[in-house]
Amino acid sequence: MAKRIDISGLTAYYGDFKAIEDISMAVEPRSVTAFIGPSGCGKSTFLRTINRMHEVIPGARVEGKVMLDDENLYGTGVDPVSVRRVVGMVFQRPNPFPTMSVYENVAAGLKLNGRYKKSELDDVVEKSLRGANLWNEVKDRLNRPGSGLSGGQQQRLCIARAIAVEPQVLLMDEPCSALDPISTLAIEDLIGDLKTRFTIVIVTHNMQQAARVSDRTAFFNLSAVGEPGRLIELDDTDKIFSNPSVQATEDYVSGRFG
Amino acid sequence: MSAQTVADKVDRTDRLGIQQPRLPRLAPLGIAAGAAVLAVLIGVLGGLGSRIQWGLIAAILFVVGLYVISTVVEGGRQAKDRLATSLVWVAFLLAVVPLASLIWETVSKGIKVTDGYFLTHSMSGVVNVAPGGGVYHALMGTIEQVLIATVIATPIGLLTAVYLVEYGRGALAKAVTFFVDVMTGIPSIVAGLFVLSLWIMILDFGYSGFAGALALAILMMPVVVRSTEEMLKLVPNELREASYALGVPKWKTILKVVLPTSIGGITTGVMLAVARITGETAPVLLLVFGSPAINNNPFDGGQASLPLYIYQQWGAGTSASFDRAWAAALVLIVFVMILNLLARGIARWKAPKTGH
User: Fold this and answer.
1) Confidence of residue B294 (pLDDT cuts 50, 70, 90)
2) pLDDT above 90: percentage of residues in chain B
3) Rounded to whole angstroms, how far apart are CA atoms B297 and B232?
4) Could you tell me which residues of chain B have a Cβ less than 8 Å from any Cβ in chain A?
5) What is the average pLDDT value for chain B, to the nearest integer?
6) pLDDT interval class at A256 (50, 70, 90)
7) Which of A256, B52, B162, B201 makes a 20 to 30 Å CA pair with B181?
8) Are B260 and A88 an interchain contact pair (Cβ–Cβ within 8 Å)?
9) Is there a contact between B205 and B299 (Cβ–Cβ < 8 Å)?
10) CA angle, B39 then B41 then B42, to 5°
11) Is the pLDDT of residue B151 over 90?
């Protein structure tokens, strides 16, 4: 199921603007890797390069390699659409499809890709909703609109939607920043469960959250506004938060910077 | 001392200076009534014949009166608020009065001959100056021409809008936008002349409902493009990205996520465009030619249409034909109104569900 990600020499642009420069890192399978760093340092941009969502924005482009086991996601002949079936993504703000019911939202990935059997769909939806710890809350209203759920439930619905297509990797872009502490806890517990099945990469502004959920943590920084963001340090989460090897990381995680 | 009495004390002392004298809630209504009475007095005494002048005097008296009284009683800031509110009300009335009087005029004059016979008979064998006859042939002609125009213009307009919003970059998109803007401004007679010269004079087809529908389609297309474009822009980008992130190709994202999300607004836009072309007379006059008899075949020979029928009946100049013109106008308004209600129904039915 889960795969190892190996990124080397990755640089991403928005038009002429270089957003991140020369990032190399490895992400182990069945682990949670957290990206931390100040706003604008390119964490989200970098995350979006891993499932080729970066290039959806007009003028955006990427240089470098992202290897999923032994396949380069940026190799010639690679279809970005297929990449996104293998590398799923959960966004900052819950974004269930407003025209679809809870059931249809979870089934959307399979249905829209046309790769499903009707009889299997019920099972996939139930399994995904259980996987997202949402089944008990919504099982009686599967046909109600997905946008009628609470914010935390909507986010778990989006996670269920993402895991329903059985990706190898799950990217999460600040999945809890729009949620209250109780919903955040529910999602963090969920991440703990999901990492037995998926490779998870999570961007977060909440350092306690990074410390709680992740096995490894990557710290990104930029030297000045307008300069590209860089990877400063990637290490085991315990080490990053107790004894980082770079001074900038220590300043950031302890709140001394600027 | 209970909490209630404490609160009362604080209110009366107003240590924070947050209490101001306020006009009673119905004061604006009273001032409006006063202004109306005064305006009638001025009108009668001053010998002003026009009711419109009376209304304008009442409006000015109301706005000025409320402002002055509010300044005296409530102070400057409240008075400005009142001024803006009263101006909005006056503008509202200015917009509604002509509309209401138009509908009143049409209904009261048109209802006379509007009956089952009028709706189910044509003018076949009836001279325009004589009483009798009906509007059936014109109604059928309008329905067919508008339907054909809609069938032609909607897909083209929709696809153009999808191109502009979802794909269009660079010079081609700019050119398309520019020409859509130009097309929006084309007078209907020019669209009619264009189809006349191309379809009838160069390609040598005869006058027909279809030729009229082509001109109507030209008039309808830019409206559909514009309204659809605005609706597609309202679809949050997050939904598109959510779909892409599931590995859904772009075309399927547009078809299954973007369009369903905006279908309510798109339908309304199409219906408004339909309503616009339903009342077009000039292209029909040039291309469909008119017919007093029922011709249900839009591809062969002249057809009637409601606007053209109204124009011809008005031109006949007898009281019987005036009655028919008003009745046809009523039928036209009701027809467009039904289309609009239909559009609202579809928009409500298809709108994204909030779950409450």
Assistant:
1) confident
2) 38
3) 37
4) 169, 236, 238-249, 252-253, 256-257, 260-261, 352-356
5) 86
6) confident
7) B201
8) no
9) no
10) 65
11) yes
Tokens representing A250 are: 């220590």
Closest-CA residue of chain A to B237? A95
In sequence order, what are the residues at sequence separation of 6 or more whose Cβ sits closer than 8 angstroms to the Cβ of residue A144? A101, A102, B355
User: Which amino acid is present at A78?
Assistant: V
pLDDT in tens, A230-244: 899 999 998 999 888
The dihedral sign for the CA sequence B287, B291, B296, B297: negative
Identity of the residue in B245, B252, B352 whose CB atom sits nearest the CB atom of A84: B245
The domain B120-350 having CATH identifier 2.30.30.40: the answer here is no
Distances (CA, A) of B353 to A113, B76, B233: 24, 45, 19
The span from the CA of B284 to the CA of B30, in Å, is: 51
Q: pLDDT band at residue B10, thresholds of 50, 70 and 90?
A: very low
Residue B2, pLDDT score: 46
Highest mean pLDDT among A1-10, A20-29, B342-351: A20-29
Does the pLDDT at position B226 exceed 90? yes
Q: How far is CA B296 from the centre of its chain?
A: 28
Assign B7 a pLDDT band (cuts: 50, 70, 90): very low
- Give whichever of A245-254, B143-152, B297-306 has the largest mean pLDDT: B143-152
In the sheet where A216-222 sits, what is the strand order?
A71-72, A60-68, A5-14, A17-27, A229-236, A216-222, A32-36, A199-203, A169-173, A87-90
Residue whose tokens read 């309808």:
B220
Architecture of domain A5-99+168-254: 3-Layer(aba) Sandwich (3.40)
Token pair for A114: 């046309």
- Classified as helix, coil or strand, A65 is strand
Where are chain B's structural domains?
Answer: 21-110, 120-350
What SS3 state is found at B256?
helix
Are A139 and A127 a contacting pair, CB within 8 Å? no
User: Helices (DSSP H) in chain A: which residue ranges?
Assistant: 43-50, 80-86, 102-113, 118-131, 135-138, 151-164, 181-194, 207-213, 237-242, 247-254
A53 closest CA partner among B242, B345, B354: B242
Identify whether the C-beta of residue A28 lies closer than 8 Å to the C-beta of residue A216.
Answer: yes
Query: In which residue are the tokens 């009628």 written?
Result: A148
Q: In a 10 Å sphere around its CB, with 0-12 CB exposed, 13-18 middle and 19+ buried, how is residue A57 labelled?
A: middle
Give the whole-angstrom CA distance, residue A50 versus residue A58.
Answer: 17
Give the closest of B260, B261, B353 to A145, CB-based: B353
Q: Is B3 helix (H, G, I), strand (E, B) or coil?
A: helix
